[in-house]
């Protein structure tokens, strides 16, 4: 399907800016990396909308690290490998758990404030963790971290340019020279030339009808990286959060896993607790197990939700003030009644394949955070490892990128010479064209229905056919930015669908009803995609 390297062209009149480190994304991975890189050279951070718009700010549960004397990096490693269902890279997990505690302490030095008890950091336990190792700031941990990082970036005078959306990665051979970006305020394309480009654009939750992700999570970095020649790996493993408020909202409000860690239980429509029948750890089973159990109960009983009972949590309003407030705002009082919950698309375990230093295989191009596939998460991310991954590998990118500063800055004339207009996607203009808005809705419906929590061969082939047709008939219409986003979504959706079709087994977050059991003999391996 992919017959293009770029989705937009550039010309001699395209505005050009230069920097040393170009960081695309303002979540925890992007901002932490920016703070570390600013000591080495000029840093520019681009963010798609406002600096507040990221999955980081929505992260409720916390950040996992073995900081307690009764815990250890080895135990954290064991739990991560167990959740990853055989596909984690042990070396990457070892980096995460051994370097993680120091990075978390750095966050605290930067200004992140976690909950304490008598002067000691309070730790909680989440699903599939053998120890209480989750540091949290009530139930708004990500927002507390985000605020601290933004404040520190401002103190360091690091420019964060809002309303700048990634279109394409600019390369010359196997060297990254910068990025083509859409400036939504000026409604024009601009070029940023850089010695190092770091993709921290987050995930792809907006591919699905129901998601916990904000509307910026449209797979921009995944699509652009893929066209540039990056390898996309483990894309079949899309994590569905088990419990979000079952309301009519497209972006559904997440009920943190920490609620179940503190004693919340799941009930079916008859008021019966059902998780013990699905897994020995009951509500604390890995996320994929809980999500499928809820899905099974919904299908079995012909309903669109189950219930979460939080009434036994004595300090509910203090421990989970954000959840309590948001439930009340939607007409539910969790201190007095059970609340309706169902799964929603939440996190992408796969992404741009990187080495242990965030390198993509293209000189000068790195990836970090949810956009990257470091090998840490395997087939199923362990709760609260994602925030940790962003800071651990962000530090490693900067450590490795020092050598990039010796790279000569390329001139815009050289970029123009390397840019081949024959590889630019031409929008379809036939009478049966599909507008970006129409395609966006079709992607969400298709992925939710056919590439969701439970898949099979016929549904995946149908999804692939629909996505191919949308790609072939997509026109630009009046919304240029939406067009660029939809192209990236279609490319990413096609890769996810094909990866799910090729993996003829069930493992972690990937469940095939026609191949319902794992097959370690044949499938204990990664599925990767290259555009060329």
Your description of this structure?
The radius of gyration is 22 Å and the shape is globular. The protein is 34% helix and 17% strand. The strands form five sheets. Strands 1, 2, 8, 9, 10, 11 and 18 form a seven-stranded mixed β-sheet that branches. Strands 19-17-12-20 form a four-stranded mixed β-sheet, covered by helices on one side. The chain contains 15 helices and 20 strands. Helix 1 (28-37) runs parallel beside helix 10 (386-401) and helix 5 (220-228) crosses helix 14.
**Which range best describes the helical content: under 10%, 10-25%, 25-40%, 40-55%, 55-70% or over 70%?**
25-40%
* Dominant shape: globular
Q: Give the biggest sheet.
A: 7 strands, mixed
Number of helices: 15
Radius of gyration: 22 Å
- C-alpha end-to-end distance: 11 Å
> Averaging pLDDT over every residue, what do you get?
93
Total strands:
20
Poorly predicted runs of 5 or more residues: none
In terms of topology, how is this protein built?
Elements: E1 16-24, H1 28-37, E2 43-46, E3 63-64, H2 73-83, H3 90-110, E4 116-117, E5 120-121, E6 123-124, E7 134-135, H4 141-155, E8 160-161, E9 164-172, E10 175-183, E11 188-199, H5 220-228, E12 232-233, E13 238-245, H6 257-261, E14 265-267, H7 287-301, E15 306-309, H8 316-319, H9 321-329, E16 339-348, E17 351-353, E18 365-367, E19 372-373, H10 386-401, H11 412-418, H12 436-450, H13 457-472, H14 480-502, H15 520-523, E20 528-529
Parallel strand pairs: 1-2, 1-11, 2-8, 11-18, 17-19
Antiparallel strand pairs: 3-7, 4-5, 6-7, 9-10, 10-11, 12-17, 12-20, 13-16, 14-15, 15-16
Helix pairs in contact: 1-4, 1-10, 2-3, 3-10, 5-14, 12-13, 12-14, 13-14
């Amino acid at each position: 399907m992919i017959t293009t390297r770029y989705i937009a062209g550039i010309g001699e009149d395209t505005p050009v800016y230069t920097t040393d480190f170009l960081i695309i994304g303002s979540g925890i991975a992007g901002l932490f990396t920016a703070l570390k890189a600013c000591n080495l050279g000029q840093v520019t951070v681009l963010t798609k909308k406002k600096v507040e718009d990221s999955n980081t700010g929505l992260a409720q549960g916390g950040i996992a690290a073995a900081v307690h004397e009764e815990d250890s990096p080895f135990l954290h490693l064991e739990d991560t490998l167990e959740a990853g269902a055989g596909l984690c890279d042990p070396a990457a997990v070892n980096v995460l758990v051994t370097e993680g505690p120091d990075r978390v302490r750095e966050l605290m030095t930067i200004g992140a404030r976690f909950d304490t008890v008598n002067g000691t950091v309070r730790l909680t336990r989440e699903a599939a963790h053998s120890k209480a190792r989750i540091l949290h700031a009530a139930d708004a941990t990500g927002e507390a971290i985000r605020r601290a990082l933004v404040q520190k970036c401002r103190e360091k005078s690091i420019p964060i340019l809002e309303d700048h959306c990634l279109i394409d990665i600019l390369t010359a051979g196997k060297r990254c020279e910068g990025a083509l970006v859409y400036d939504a305020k000026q409604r024009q394309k601009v070029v940023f030339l850089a010695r190092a480009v770091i993709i921290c654009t987050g995930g792809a939750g907006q591919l699905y009808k129901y998601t916990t992700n904000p509307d910026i999570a449209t797979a921009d970095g995944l699509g652009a990286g893929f066209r540039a020649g990056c390898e996309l790996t483990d894309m079949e493993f899309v994590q569905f959060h088990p419990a979000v408020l079952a309301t009519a909202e497209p972006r559904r409000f997440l009920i943190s896993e920490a609620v179940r860690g503190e004693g919340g239980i799941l009930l079916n429509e008859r008021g019966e607790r059902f998780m013990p029948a699905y897994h020995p750890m009951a509500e604390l089973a890995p996320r994929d197990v809980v999500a499928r159990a809820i899905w099974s109960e919904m299908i079995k009983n012909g309903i669109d939700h189950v219930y979460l009972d939080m009434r036994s949590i004595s300090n509910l309003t203090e421990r989970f003030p954000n959840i309590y407030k948001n439930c009340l705002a939607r007409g539910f009082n969790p201190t007095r009644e059970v609340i309706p919950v169902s799964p929603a698309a939440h996190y992408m375990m796969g992404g741009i394949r990187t080495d242990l230093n965030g390198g993509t295989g293209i000189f000068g191009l790195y990836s970090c955070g949810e956009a990257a596939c470091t090998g840490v998460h395997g087939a199923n991310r362990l709760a609260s490892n994602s925030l940790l991954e962003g800071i651990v590998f962000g530090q490693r990118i900067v450590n490795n990128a020092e050598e990039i500063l010796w790279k000569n800055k390329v001139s815009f004339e050289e970029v123009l010479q390397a840019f081949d207009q024959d590889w630019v996607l031409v929008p379809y203009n036939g009478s049966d064209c599909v507008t970006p808005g129409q395609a966006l809705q079709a992607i969400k419906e298709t992925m939710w229905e056919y590439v969701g929590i439970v898949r099979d061969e016929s549904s995946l082939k149908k999804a692939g056919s629909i996505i191919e047709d949308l790609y072939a008939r997509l026109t630009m219409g009046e919304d240029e930015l939406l067009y660029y986003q939809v192209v990236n979504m279609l490319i990413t959706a096609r890769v996810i669908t094909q990866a799910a079709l090729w993996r003829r087994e069930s493992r972690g977050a990937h469940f095939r009803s026609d191949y319902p059991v794992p097959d370690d003999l044949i499938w204990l391996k990664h599925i990767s995609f290259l555009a060329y």
